[in-house]
Amino acid sequence: MKPLFAGALFCALLSTAALAALKDGDPAPDFTLQAALAGKSFTFRLSEALKKGPVVLYFYPKSFTKGCTIEAHDFAENAENFAAAGASLIGLSSDTIETQIDFSSKECRDKFPVAADPDAAVIRSYDALRTKPSASGAMVADRISYVIAPDGKIIYAYQDSAPEKHIENTLAAVRQWREQHKP
Prior knowledge:
The structure is a single chain. This protein is globular. It is an alpha/beta fold. The chain has helices at residues 3-17, 46-50, 66-77, 79-84, 97-106, 121-125, 164-180, and strands at 32-37, 40-45, 55-59, 88-93, 114-116, 144-148, 154-159. It has a seven-stranded mixed β-sheet with strand order 2-1-5-4-3-6-7. The longest helix is centred in the last third of the chain and has 17 residues, at 164-180. It has one domain (3-180): Glutaredoxin. The termini are far apart. The protein has seven helices and seven strands, in the order H-E-E-H-E-H-H-E-H-E-H-E-E-H.
């Protein structure tokens, strides 16, 4: 890769990451929500997940839509890579738990959980509510991904309506964090 191109790419990644609502170093709001994994519901607590290592929390607009399905497939294909780097994954949208139960099996391929936030309380706490309503008029989450360190601080934030770079960028951030925090 040519130095000029690499520098431009790095700046583009930084500038896109800077768009995210919460920034590196901000405390990640703790939350407890109903979630689904492999078609079964359970209670997800961010504080409990952080006890095991970093958490990649990604917000997405709506289950079973084209971009959100692509993103879920990509995260599912890389779930083992995130686990190998010591991180867990959770997707979150304003869909109901019934929708998430179905989405967790079909599109997340039983690899990681998705949480239901139908009143958008958590979405709002992360300032991730899309500024304009969806085509149906419903308020939905923006496509934002966060990497949260075990101390509850955000170490990486990335916002882009296109799903393709969310996995690559968050995995790189987790690996970089892991490298800096080797035992």
